[in-house]
Hints:
The chain is α+β, with helices and mostly antiparallel strands and 240 residues long. The protein contains 7 helices and 7 strands. The chain has a 5-stranded antiparallel β-sheet with strand order 1-2-3-5-4, with helices on both faces.
Amino acid sequence: MVDIDEELVRRLVTEQFPRWAHLPVAAVARQGWDNRTFRLGEHLVVRLPSAEGYVPGVAKEDGCLPALARHLPLPVPEPVATGAPGAGHPYPRSVRRWLPGDTLAATAEVDRPAVARDLGAFLTALRRAPTTGGPAAGRHSCFRGCHPSAYDDEVEQALAVLGGRVDTVGGHRLRHVWRRGIPPATWWRRGPGSPLRSAGCSGSRPACPTTPGGVPAAGRCGRRSSPSQATTGTRSRRGP
């Protein structure tokens, strides 16, 4: 992971956005893991990926946020500029409008029923937002929404690490549980009713072009067509 601090962000802004070089830079109090966030003056915020694996999310969010904003009842961050690698940060980054607020847990007095209603209305609108042309699930979403075989390599690596901690029989059993729990790729799709479409997953193209798990690319992302298609292997993962 890249070490990102206020001085680095200040250099990046001065180098690539000189019109904002006079604005103060300050780290936000609550940082995320995927990205680091810094206030830029009163009205802007800089969001920087902390590692290479989070870079695809920059272009996705810069493209999807404005498209979604037209369909949502509450404001979402508005991208205003995208920075290029430089000044000690090897990845692109996004400059957005700052949305004031705080977490629910940190708010002493709040009408929680009203918050629940607003949240429900927001999620309903998000689900209804059109997704034509939106990005399919893939690397930018850390393969969330893809066929479980997208994680096959990681599972094999984990089993290899566990090799010295479990006996051979135990290792074979763990691998068997994983293999048995992966549903057939032919079940996996993105249909009109899929919640994955609401998250910006397009149904017009394969979401994951490569198949480290050996599953055809066209079947890697989406959801099962019907709950009734669950096999014994699938049920064993979620319980009776």
